[in-house]
Amino acid sequence: MSLGSDLAAAISQIVTNAAILRAVVQGPASGTNSIVTLPDGSQVKTLARVAAEVVAYLATFPAGGTTGQVLAKTSNTDYAVAWSTLPNQSTTAPTFHALTSGSGTWNLPGGAKWMRVIAVGGGGGGGGANNTSPGSTGGSTTFGALTAPGGAGSTHIAAGAPGVGSGGNVRNQAGTRGDPGSWNEVSASASAAGGTGGSTEFGPGGTCAYASGGGAANANSGAGGAGGGTNAVGWALGGYGGSSGGIVEHIYSAPAASYSYAVGAGGAGAAGGDGYSAAGGAGGSGAIFIWVHYNW
Predict the structure, then answer these.
(1) pLDDT value of residue 60
(2) Comparing C-alpha atoms, which of 144, 94, 101 is closest to residue 115?
(3) pLDDT in tens, 31-84
(4) Is the CB of residue 82 less than 8 Å from the CB of residue 269?
(5) What is the radius of gyration, based on Cα positions, of the chain?
(6) What count of other Cβ atoms lies within 10 Å of the Cβ of residue 289?
(7) Residues 214/241, Cβ–Cβ less than 8 Å
(8) Which residues contact 54 (CB under 8 A, 6 or more apart)?
(9) Residues 164, 200: Cα–Cα separation, whole Å
(10) What is the mean pLDDT of residues 216-227?
(11) How far apart are CA 220 and CA 247, in angstroms?
(12) Does residue 209 surpass a pLDDT of 70?
């Protein structure tokens, strides 16, 4: 092709493009000419038609509204919206409440929207050295319909069963079993230590040194007491640690005005089985922990 023909083709394309651009920019807002067909067959709307459609769309939004309101859907239909006032949001920070003993009725603070509750049962008592009788079972902790049973007490040959929580919508967790005590057999005196009590997330189980009484678990931990140690003649068998209480956790999305509750006590340790053997330690008492929220 010659330079002259190339130039003529370029000028023709410019003229065509200019005509298309003029039609898009200057075309009407409605009617047949508000849609412009391009050389490749595709179509575009004129600027006037696009502006008219935007104005028509904005006209579907309701007028008015006040400071703080938002547009909210009123149905699943397109453009179905209305001005809406958000629920009042509180400036009160979340509050924490701990129920550590006894029983009674707990009242929800005013303005609360939702709350989280974790309860743990009392820990079981540690087994006495050389004693087949178990320590006492920890008391159950309850809050409304939630139950966190206490851990069972242990003997010198077996750990009691841990408690298992029930009623929670987040978790219903079993406690942990107490550890066995040590064993020693010699011709003369023999020392043995009691086993460590079962632990919880709120504290470790009690511990015991050789030939010593079992240590108690911390209050409100729900952990088990330690087994008793011994310094017996000929043979020695320390007691098992008590097992820990169960744990239950629940989220209340629409809490009631009040709840009945009871906090489980820790179980007592068993006595030593003879004059050379020490008693197991007491389990830790249970507890109820409550986090109250005043905003969603």
Answers:
(1) 75
(2) 94
(3) 988 888 888 888 888 888 888 888 887 777 788 888 878 888 888 988 788 888
(4) no
(5) 38
(6) 18
(7) yes
(8) none
(9) 12
(10) 98
(11) 12
(12) yes
Q: Are strands 43-45 and 35-37 parallel, antiparallel or unpaired?
A: antiparallel
Q: Which tokens in the block code for residue 120?
A: 């743990």
Mapping DSSP to helix (H, G, I), strand (E, B) and coil, where does residue 166 land? strand
Coil/strand/helix, residue 106? strand
Q: How many CB atoms lie within 10 A of CB 82?
A: 14
Helices (H) and strands (E) counted in the chain, each on its own, are: 2, 15
Token pair 């397109």: residue: 78
List, as one string, the DSSP characters of 238-275.
Answer: PPPPPPPPPEEEEEESS--SEEEEEPPPPPPPPPPSST
Q: Where is 112: in which H helix or E strand?
A: none
Q: Distance (Å, rounded) from C-alpha 118 to C-alpha 112?
A: 17
Is 184:233 a contact under the CB 8 Å cutoff? Answer: no
The strand pairing partners of 259, in sequence order, are 106
65, 107, 236 from 180: Cα distances, Å: 71, 42, 13
pLDDT at residue 292, rounded to an integer: 98
Torsion of Cα atoms, 151 then 153 then 155 then 161, to 10°: -30
Beta bridge partners of 85: 69
Amino acid, single-letter form, for residue 171 = R
Query: Would you mind telling me the total number of residues written for the chain in this entry?
Result: 296
Q: Which of 8, 53, 43 is nearest to 23 (CA)?
A: 43
Classify burial at 167, counting beta carbons within 10 Å of its beta carbon; exposed 0-12, middle 13-18, buried 19 or more. middle
